Sequence to fold (269 residues):
Amino acid sequence: MKTHIEFHSLLCTYFNTNELRTLCFDLNINYENLPGNTFDSKTRELVAFCYRYERLEALIIRCRELRPIVIWPNSQALKESLEISTPDLQKGINVPNSNQTIHGSYNAVSSHGGNSTVNVTNIHHPFVEDSSSLLERSILLIQAHAYDQAIETLNSALKLTPENPRTHFYLAFAMLKGNRPKLLKLSTIQAIENHLQVAIDIDPKLGQAYILWSLLKYDYYVMNSIRESPPTIAQLLQQNWSVNQNEINEIKKHISAPRNRVWEWLQSL
Fold:
């Protein structure tokens, strides 16, 4: 995985909004002036800002101090990853033209060690991730049980490639948020089923989608004594699909559903 994607994922996983504010304060960076309205976008822009002003090493050092158990990448690898993947992410201050506006002041540390205030122009240049990179990052977020952030990332990926079946599957998976399906609202179940339906429509052999949908149907409909609508569990399990052990384990790791026959069958695999 690309270093900058992994680093962004680690920040999103091991920091929350208040902790990210503190991180920015420690680095003498104005959190409020970072572009974006979401935690995900603020985190991206923090990395972009540190890249532009050659402060990646300071960022990583502080991350190591605050989260010593996390394996953080080195600053040179992160810098090279950003340079290769995002050639348009310029460092320093852009010179404004007649169509550009200045979006505020950032407190930055100058090369001679003192503090200075710089007006940053055209700062809205987060490093750009393609749909594959977004999908990879969302899987890491799911593994870390950061489901809300995974959902946000997957929705961004869908905007770029709505025809990717794995993105639809992982969005359905993340929407469960580690809960057993029978405890969720019908509207949530239906939204999850819609994504699973799209996933198998695009890829009729996507085994994980069939298994997850079967597990969901048994847990929500059968165990709540609600009549299930087609496709039935039997129809889903009888399709010609394939799945490997890692894909089975991924589902088992995030969902616990005792007395659910599909879930119990998965435990035996």
In short: DSSP finds 13 helices and two strands in the chain.
